[in-house]
Amino acid sequence: MDYFAQQLINGLVLGSIYGLIAIGYTMVYGIVGMINFAHGDIFMIGGFIALITFLILVSFGLTAIPLILLIVLLVSMAITALYGWTVERIAYRPLRHSFRLAPMLSAIGMSFVLTNYSQVAQGARVKPVPPIITGGYTLHEGAEGFNVQLSNIQIIVVLTTVVLLALFTWLVSSTRLGRDMRACEQDQTMASLLGVDVDRTISMTFVIGAALAAVAGMMYLLYYGLVDFFMGFVAGIKAFTAAVLGGIGSLPGAMLGGLLIGLIETLWSAYFSVEYKDVAAFSILIVVLIFLPTGLLGRPEVEKV
Amino acid sequence: MSASPATPLLAIRSLRAAYGKIEALKGVDIDINAGEIVALIGANGAGKSTLMMTIFGRPRARSGHIEFDGQDITGVPTHDIARLRIAQSPEGRRIFPRMSVAENLQMGADATDSGESDRANSLERVFALFPRLKERMTQRGGTLSGGEQQMLAIGRALMSRPRLLMLDEPSLGLAPLIARQIFDAIRTLNRQDGLTVLIVEQNANHALKLAHRGYVMVNGLITLSGTGNELLQRPEIRAAYLEGGRRE
């Protein structure tokens, strides 16, 4: 039971990271109807920028950890958002009125570009960081010496995710930008007839998605203590799986899917095989696509009056 | 209004537009003066809806000019045209099905950055015309009946306090009683607030009785124009659009 509780905690933390990335997939799909395959690499870029910002701040002699983390978070979100904006601008917008597959192919190309650019610029080796946030709590002392632990970094990951999700939900449901985004998702032509700048709204969607992915990248860095140029690929596909599982286009679905994929992967690793954890996650993708193509919270494709 | 009485609020000159290779507008001239209700009638596929959309730049005009209040808007981006307070209740209504009625109306108000008091006034005006919408404020647009959706589409257009209101087939698919309510609402808006209206209709009888002036469109060209009454008397109009003929 203790072991299971521990895995639940671990799965929840991993699921939070997946969920933050999955929101970017599902938002972009909702508004422009394409899968942004470069989104996983945007997450990777976010991790790198967090690392670089961290090292710069430390080399300046900054020691207050909470201040460092806050600056790293903001810088990483801002610069990664710029990457997201740029990717849309140069790789997707020119293809907006092209055939449906074109931006998807362009996205895969963009993913390779970002991966290789990071490899060239930052090197192929894994970049470790010493543990920045240490300590934690023992929730329960087991009889056989197994203790259920909740580390501070886990608390921070989950809390940050909850706060960001609350902010993001408020943005989408109650602000002008959120309303414009939903209008563009439902009927771009009508939105423009009502004065909505569709191009700008789509850009903002990429910016917000990238900023959330940057937070995920930073959390990944803090939690696992490393980044590498290839980490966007697997994490990206897992988050994509999460978005599909939750119902692509659905924002609560993305978060739910993220948590489920995180839990499934963690529990599979804990009880069956660590080596095959990716197989578990991707089997879910295949099963969902075959038997539940609209996902858990997605809506049926046909909805024209 | 800053336009002098001589210049029309909307002036369309030799406008051509096409979808791909299919030319939908083949040189259209139309004037709409401030304070007028102008009806555009014609059969299915004549290009009436295309004309309304081309005023908004969707599709872009191939040639010709569109001037609103003396300003050439032929090449202005669609969303900036909306900001000039031209509003449209388009073909098919196009309400946002997964937004509440309140949000749909708010989208209309957002179009012109109206202040809080303007927004409240517009909302009162919409509720006065269509009390039904008030009861439905929290309901999703997609769950409304056809008539309610039509009211919502018109209400949304009114929320931007338009200087020119364009209505595409406001009576399409509605029960006669509701259609009459909508026509009455348009007449009220015109008489009380001096609202300028361009109305596209297949229901020529209703539209021409409502309108000060009318244009008849056939295959992308204006073939006739005149006051509403004049057009109603013309035998060819009666034959084509009023007495059976190609009416839907």
TrEMBL record, chain A:
Membrane-spanning residues: 12-35, 42-62, 68-87, 99-118, 153-172, 202-223, 280-298
Primary localization class, coarse: membrane
Top-level taxon of the source organism: Bacteria
Compartments where located: Cell membrane
A GO molecular function held by the record: L-phenylalanine transmembrane transporter activity
Biological process annotations from GO: D-alanine transmembrane transport; L-alanine transport; L-isoleucine import across plasma membrane
Pfam families: BPD_transp_2
InterPro entries: ABC_transp_permease, BCAA_transport_permease
Gene Ontology cellular component list: plasma membrane
Keywords: Amino-acid transport, Cell inner membrane, Cell membrane, Membrane, Transmembrane, Transmembrane helix, Transport
Annotated signal sequence range: none
Topology term for the membrane: Multi-pass membrane protein
PANTHER family registered for this protein in UniProt: BRANCHED-CHAIN AMINO ACID TRANSPORT SYSTEM PERMEASE PROTEIN LIVH (PTHR11795), HIGH-AFFINITY BRANCHED-CHAIN AMINO ACID TRANSPORT SYSTEM PERMEASE PROTEIN LIVH (PTHR11795:SF371)
Similarity remark: Belongs to the binding-protein-dependent transport system permease family. LivHM subfamily.
UniProt protein name: Branched-chain amino acid transporter permease subunit LivH
Species for this entry: Bradyrhizobium jicamae
Taxonomic lineage from the root: Bacteria, Pseudomonadati, Pseudomonadota, Alphaproteobacteria, Hyphomicrobiales
From TrEMBL, chain B:
Record keyword Transmembrane helix present: no
Gene3D superfamilies hit by this protein: P-loop containing nucleotide triphosphate hydrolases
Keyword hit for Cytoplasm: no
Record keywords, A-Z: Amino-acid transport, ATP-binding, Nucleotide-binding, Transport
Family (UniProt): Belongs to the ABC transporter superfamily.
Xref: PANTHER family: HIGH-AFFINITY BRANCHED-CHAIN AMINO ACID TRANSPORT ATP-BINDING PROTEIN LIVF (PTHR43820)
Protein name in the entry: ABC transporter ATP-binding protein
